[in-house]
Design goal:
This protein has about 375 residues and is an alpha/beta fold. It has two domains: about 20-75 and about 340-375, Urease, subunit C, domain 1; about 75-330, Alpha-Beta Barrel (TIM Barrel), CATH 3.20.20.140. It contains twelve helices and 15 strands. The protein has helices at about 1-20, 85-95, 105-115, 155-165, 185-195, 205-215, 230-240, 250-260, 270-280, 305-315, 320-325, 325-330; strands at about 20-30, 35-45, 50-55, 65, 70-75, 75-80, 95-100, 125, 170-175, 200-205, 220, 245, 350-355, 365-370, 375. Strands 1, 2, 3, 4, 5, 13, 14 and 15 form an eight-stranded mixed sheet that branches. Strands 9-10-11-12 form a four-stranded parallel sheet. Strands 6-7-8 form a three-stranded parallel sheet. β2 and β3 (about 50-55) form a beta hairpin. α4 (about 155-165) crosses α5 (about 185-195) and α10 (about 305-315) runs antiparallel to α11. The chain starts with a helix and ends with a strand. About 45% of the residues are buried.
Length: about 375
Amino acid sequence: MYKINMLIVLLVLTLFGNAQDSFIIENVKVFDGETVISSTSVKVENGIIVKISKRIKSSGNTEVIDGRGKTLIPALSNAHVHAWAPESLAQAAKAGVLNVMDMHGVETYQGAMRQLKDSTDYARFYVAGYAATAPEGHGTQFGFPVPTLTKPEEAAKFIEDRVKANVDHIKIILEPWKTTLSIETVSELIKEAHKAEKIAVVHISRLEDAINVISNDADGLVHIWWDKEIKSTKLKELAESKSFFVIPTLLTTIKVFATMGGAEEKFLSKDQLQSEVKKMYDAGIPILAGTDPPNAGINYGTDLYKELELIRDSGMPTIEVLKAGTSNVTKAFGLKNTGFIKEGFIADLILVDGDVTEDIKALNNHKIIWKDGKLVKQ
């Protein structure tokens, strides 16, 4: 009798597991990372999107979810964070932000946090390790030891050490309000990063520095410039001659400026910053959403929605804004099989009440989130 009872328990658990691992979302509007499908069905099995079709037959063990009045989108990605504890990754996941790109941190801690990548309730963690900066430069003020550089000849060793630490990308800081790296050192760091097959992104705050690092083949900027507006002709020239993306971090910039007690008048206004984003979009430059938490008290989850709203208010179409928070990030950072709703891709999904393709604020509505086809706790 004991064996029979155990067999029944195992059978029930197996059936329950199959029901959880296999589901169909029917009659749902889909943003697939590139385009919008007005009504379709999506089937997931064992964490993978296996079929997208107008009609999909279900078996007895397959859960069927009614998608009418809802939008299915790929899980979000945050292209600029500083995460110091697993709780930050959990907060991100609860908001549907399942990939985060860290831009400076303690490599030993990061290694441990990356082990949570297969856990359902934590975002995947992609890291730069220690950012490249000068002695007493920006990035050295956070209370932990940071390796620094003073000349171009040190770039190869710095990149070699980051590769040994198994980083995903290279972050370089060019910030003239403190001691900073020379453009020659930045250029050499970019070259060495590319030799190591790593993308190189650069922290800037001045337009002149942005133009210099892009001209030296930086793959991306992790902030927008704050000091002056770029001429459309110059932006077009850069976009035509170089391939790069920009993470504007508008929310962080606007919040920081608000605390400066009038000093913000020296910099671009909110409207001007948003105008620069629209210029970049019009020039064909990929825009990526990032929020730079925990700076300015920004959280790791729902504040990304606010960044997307600010990008939308720059004048970009809502579909392009959704790309900024999904497929643009995964493409720019080379993340495989995620950021899109396509057959064969990982089932990292958000089912949102309402039409987020028309109104980005619908992200604040009730939602269901899956990571690898498994429900994320809300």
